[in-house]
UniProtKB/TrEMBL annotation:
<protein>
    <submittedName>
        <fullName>Uncharacterized protein</fullName>
    </submittedName>
</protein>
<keyword id="KW-1133">Transmembrane helix</keyword>
<feature type="transmembrane region" description="Helical">
    <location>
        <begin position="180"/>
        <end position="201"/>
    </location>
</feature>
<feature type="transmembrane region" description="Helical">
    <location>
        <begin position="36"/>
        <end position="57"/>
    </location>
</feature>
<feature type="transmembrane region" description="Helical">
    <location>
        <begin position="118"/>
        <end position="137"/>
    </location>
</feature>
<comment type="similarity">
    <text>Belongs to the ABC-2 integral membrane protein family.</text>
</comment>
<dbReference type="GO" id="GO:0140359">
    <property type="term" value="F:ABC-type transporter activity"/>
</dbReference>
<dbReference type="GO" id="GO:0043190">
    <property type="term" value="C:ATP-binding cassette (ABC) transporter complex"/>
</dbReference>
<keyword id="KW-0472">Membrane</keyword>
<feature type="transmembrane region" description="Helical">
    <location>
        <begin position="236"/>
        <end position="254"/>
    </location>
</feature>
<dbReference type="GO" id="GO:0015920">
    <property type="term" value="P:lipopolysaccharide transport"/>
</dbReference>
<feature type="transmembrane region" description="Helical">
    <location>
        <begin position="63"/>
        <end position="84"/>
    </location>
</feature>
<feature type="transmembrane region" description="Helical">
    <location>
        <begin position="149"/>
        <end position="168"/>
    </location>
</feature>
<dbReference type="InterPro" id="IPR000412">
    <property type="entry name" value="ABC_2_transport"/>
</dbReference>
<keyword id="KW-0813">Transport</keyword>
<keyword id="KW-0812">Transmembrane</keyword>
């Protein structure tokens, strides 16, 4: 009855939330140091990289199909990609870097991955918010539908988190996952959808591009930024299917890896 009424569930959930919060603060201190400048760098890193890419293409003077603003296009393409790349690249090293924490009975592999990836999500969200304010105040380029941008970023985080759990699982059994993930994220950049729009492509290539789940994320984010200014193509249920499948497989993989992991 206690399980049916949920009495033991809520205290357990509160414990795990505190664990994830503590792990997030630990990860923040480990990556950026414990002074204020280190914490600020959490948001500056994606902001500086995204801003530099946007500025370079803006100064190039090249126009884009559909009349979209060059700076906003490249920034809102790079920042979600930064989230994807950051989560995936840190996935294989997550367990090895925090293995000693597993001696604490409340700490799980899922907690470790959640802490890392939520921190990455917070950093990119802060950077994207800063860019939205900048382009809105300076150039009048306010997002048409901000809710779609938020949804797109959440789906990207969910997709990347699921894939990162699978990479972390694989890293328990082989070092090759850590070695090839960085290379894969760079080689796959041209097909992710970060720097092209589907309507730019010939019809046959459009169909092929829409098989790639991340293309739907970038199209959704651009729909939120530009609205009806440019045509966009995305399927949220298709993307949700990918997110659900990757996360279910990832959690199952982490459970198996935990049993095989030697402390």
């Amino acid at each position: 009855m206690r399980a049916a009424t949920g009495a033991p569930v809520l205290p357990g959930l509160r414990v795990q939330l505190r664990v994830v919060g503590a792990l997030t603060l630990r990860e923040l201190g480990t990556r950026f140091g414990r002074d204020n400048l280190g914490y600020i760098w959490l948001f500056l890193e994606p902001a500086l990289l995204g801003g530099a890419i946007g500025l370079v293409h803006h100064l190039s003077g090249h126009a884009l199909p559909g009349g979209v603003d060059v700076g906003t296009f490249w920034v809102i393409g790079y920042v979600p990609y930064y989230l994807l790349r950051g989560v995936l690249n840190r996935g294989p090293s997550a367990i090895a870097a925090n293995q000693s924490l597993l001696y604490h009975r409340h700490v799980t592999l899922l907690d470790i991955l959640l802490a890392r990836n939520l921190l990455e999500g917070a950093a990119t969200a802060g950077a994207l918010l800063g860019f939205a304010l900048f382009f809105g105040l300076v150039a009048g380029e306010w997002p048409r539908e901000p809710a779609k941008i938020v949804l797109g970023m959440l789906l990207m985080l969910g997709f990347a988190h699921g894939a990162a759990m699978l990479l972390a699982t694989g890293s328990v059994y082989s070092e090759i996952f850590d070695r090839v993930t960085h290379l894969f994220t760079y080689l796959s950049l041209p097909i992710t959808g970060a720097f092209f729009m589907v309507f730019w492509l010939p019809t046959e290539l459009q169909r092929a591009a829409l098989w790639v789940p991340t293309v739907h994320v970038f199209e959704l984010v651009r729909d939120g930024q530009y609205g009806t200014l440019v045509p966009t193509s995305y399927d949220v249920p298709y993307l949700l299917g990918w997110v659900a499948a990757l996360n279910l497989l990832g959690m199952a993989g982490l459970r198996r890896a935990r049993r095989d992991l030697a402390l």
